[in-house]
Task: inverse folding
């Protein structure tokens, strides 16, 4: 089908829901893994339309994952997993999976395996030996998945991601290691191809207020407006781009502000921003929520909350 099940955003209230359990929210690369009688497929997710994007099995850049999946005691299986690299503090960090998934030459793959060993954290089961599990409740899928992986004693990278009814303790644990957050899932929920309220994500996010110094041009549905706002940190360095979180009225409002603002010299080269942009002088700042700040001072996954004059 080429689709993934996605979560809606939740709030702290999900910690008190007795019909939901919690799983760690990992900072890696989402992947559907399919073993068939004729081969193996491992598809990443296209975040724009939730379709399949890259088949890693074609490039053999994750040989340890391929090895484990081929060794499972089944003829066919369809797994949902997060390709994850854990740092020395036990926190999942996306950099590892980004490097591994983007490395394609044999020599580079072998070298990257030493630096960024990947764990395929498997958290759901869609099909097994021709039986469709998407209509089965969450607990049935998890129990079957756990049994399948437990039968294979020599797995190096394929790992079962367990859940807990104590979502509060899990949330506090994720905060203590600066983890990404938790996923709350209903015990009776089916696997739905698309966004569903059977899954709610509770992210360990922060907020910041940043100066707007420019904008990128919009494409496709955003062509009438803008792509993203270019942000500056208080020390004058590049702070990232924010392009998500705007509704239609906010897009229209910001477009009018940007078009009426005076253009100015670019404070950062296009190469640092990652694309061509228009620099403007505008007395409006934005409030954003974000996951973390990179070593270069750039916000990761910023989402627009509102503006500040």
Result:
């Amino acid at each position: 089908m080429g689709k993934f099940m996605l979560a809606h955003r939740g709030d702290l209230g999900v910690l008190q829901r007795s019909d939901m359990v919690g799983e760690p929210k990992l900072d890696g690369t989402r992947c559907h893994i399919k073993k068939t009688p004729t081969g193996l497929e491992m598809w990443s997710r296209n975040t724009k339309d939730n379709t399949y994007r890259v088949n890693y099995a074609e490039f053999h850049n994750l040989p340890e994952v391929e090895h484990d999946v081929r060794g499972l005691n089944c003829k066919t299986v369809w797994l949902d997993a997060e390709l994850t690299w854990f740092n020395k503090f036990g926190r999942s960090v996306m950099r590892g999976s980004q490097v591994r998934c983007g490395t394609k030459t044999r020599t580079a793959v072998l070298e990257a395996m030493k630096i960024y060993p990947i764990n395929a954290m498997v958290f759901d089961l869609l099909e097994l030996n021709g039986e469709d599990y998407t209509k089965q409740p969450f607990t049935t899928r998890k129990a079957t998945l756990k049994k399948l992986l437990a039968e294979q004693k020599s797995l190096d990278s394929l790992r079962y991601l367990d859940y807990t009814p104590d979502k509060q303790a899990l949330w506090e644990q994720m905060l203590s290691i600066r983890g990404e957050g938790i996923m709350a899932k209903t015990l009776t929920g089916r696997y739905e191809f698309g966004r569903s309220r059977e899954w709610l994500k509770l992210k360990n996010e922060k907020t910041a207020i940043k100066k707007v110094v420019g904008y990128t041009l919009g494409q496709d549905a955003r062509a009438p407006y803008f792509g993203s706002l270019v942000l500056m940190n208080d020390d004058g360095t590049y702070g990232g781009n924010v392009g998500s979180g705007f509704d239609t009225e906010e897009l229209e409002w910001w477009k009018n502000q940007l078009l009426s603002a005076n253009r100015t010299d670019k404070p950062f080269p296009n190469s640092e921003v990652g694309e061509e942009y228009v620099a403007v002088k505008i007395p409006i700042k934005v409030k954003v929520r974000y996951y973390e700040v990179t070593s270069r001072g750039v916000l990761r996954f910023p989402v627009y909350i509102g503006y500040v004059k």
User: Anything to note?
Assistant: The CA atoms of residues 258 and 280 lie 7 Å apart. The helical segments are 56-59, 63-70, 94-102, 106-115, 138-150, 167-176, 248-260, 270-273.
